[in-house]
Amino acid sequence: MKVMILLKRKAGMSHADFVDHYENSHVVLAHRYLGHLFVDYRRNYPLPVLEQVGEEPNPAVADSPFDAITEIWLEDHAAWLEMQRIIADPVIGKIFMDDEEHFLDRPSLRIFPCHEVHSQAERAS
């Protein structure tokens, strides 16, 4: 199972400061409290669109409104429920919330549990 998380930086914060705080504080907390549940944990930072090829550029190619797209792979649905239980703990949850106040625009935060699908051709390679 995969969880996709869309994150946006706090107003007035630079993208570089957002990445620095996320990588050096929040990721550390995630590994400390949730890392035993992770099969994989990746942070993707969208790049600005500097140029587009073609006479009529693709309007779907645009700068992201999000500063990070995080992917967390979990073993199964039980791990997802356990992750939620840990975050709901009043002490651990407060640690995460307090850290998020330093770098995250919490109202824009989006979390999506996902079922990843691969085509037959992708599975064969």
From TrEMBL:
Q: Where is the chain membrane-spanning?
A: none
Q: Which InterPro entries match?
A: Dimeric_a/b-barrel, EthD_dom
In what residue span(s) does the EthD domain sit? 10-106
Short name of one Pfam family: EthD
Provenance organism: Novosphingobium sediminis
Its protein name is EthD domain-containing protein
- GO molecular function per UniProt: oxidoreductase activity
Q: What SUPFAM superfamilies does its record include? A: Dimeric alpha+beta barrel
